[in-house]
Amino acid sequence: DEKNPAVWFLDHNYVETMRDMFKKINAKEKVIGWYHNGPKLRSSDLQINELFKRYTPNPVLVVVDVQPKEIGLPTDAYFAVEEIHDDGTAATKTFEHVPTEIGAEEAEEIGVEHLLRDIKDNSTGTLATRISHQFSSLRGLSERLADIRAYLQKVLEGGLPVNSEIIQNLQDIFNLLPNLTIPEDAAAFTVQTNDQYALIYVSAMARSIIALHDLINNKIENREAERMADEKENEAKNASAAAVTDAAAGQTKAQTEETDMASK
Q1: 3-state DSSP call for residue 182?
Q2: According to the model, what pLDDT value does residue 19 have?
Q3: What is the C-alpha separation between 198 and 186, in angstroms, rounded?
Q4: Which of 93, 191, 209, 221 is 20 to 30 A removed from 65 (C-alpha atoms)?
């Protein structure tokens, strides 16, 4: 309950049904925990976590932020641990944060890739979407570089010990970077970048021209359809008026004949 966090409900039937369905697909998979959409821990999480011990001895809780505002993994994982107090009071349980990593098997990656191809935002064009994705990627890269810089600065100042594995990974990253001090490489990157920008510009211009042509053709077709509808309406009105005139003329002729007969 949003108003009263102490009121909550866990659907055991749903959990067990989903577990049985997953077992039919892959018998090797096991339930290791549960998740909710957070975005932060809730007061009732410890109680729900105790109920999930029916399915796994030490369940893991994953908090998924469905509307992330920062670049990075929108997940946080926790284990329930007992916290022992120095004052001699009874131990209490609390959540301890653990690092997380999201991975997928090859079949899952292919399925997600095909799913993302079918998801299109009609409000934005392809070019705008690509630029938005590139901007998000660059922003994420900037944050990662800031983290690396902060870590190296702390190691240099003696605040953190030197980790040979991290240093080796950083060295591998630097070795993969292109050497732009070589004039030939710099010129090649410049030419490739210009070619890509030219292709994007020409594609955007062609798309705009095609869209304008479609708009003009659509207006011409609508105008022609309106003209045809007006002509049919006028023809219907003329036919109706002619029928009324013929009926009036026939009625007048009949009255004249009746008058003549009466005069004779």
Answers
A1: coil
A2: 86
A3: 18
A4: 93
User: Alpha-carbon torsion 48, 53, 57, 59, what sign?
Assistant: negative
Closest of 77, 76, 79, 89 to residue 56, by C-alpha: 79
In the numeric block, the tokens 């999480």 are attached to: 45
Encoded tokens for 172: 């591998």
**Tokens at residue 188, please?**
């090649």
Residue 257 structure tokens: 């004949």
Q: Could you identify the residue written with the tokens 């990627």? A: 137
pLDDT band at 121 (very low <50, low <70, confident <90, very high): low
**Burial of 63 from C-beta contacts in 10 A (0-12 / 13-18 / 19+):** buried
Place of tokens 């040979």: 164
More confident residue, 63 or 118: 63
Instruction: With CA atoms as reference, report the closest residue to 33 among 20, 46, 17, 52.
Output: 52
Q: First and final CA of the chain: distance in angstroms?
A: 101
Asked if 60 and 79 count as a contact pair (C-beta separation under 8 A), the reply is yes
In one-letter notation, the amino acid at residue 37 is N
Q: Which two tokens stand for residue 140?
A: 């994420």
Query: Tokens for 106?
Result: 């090859």
Q: Are 95 and 67 in contact (CB under 8 A)?
A: no
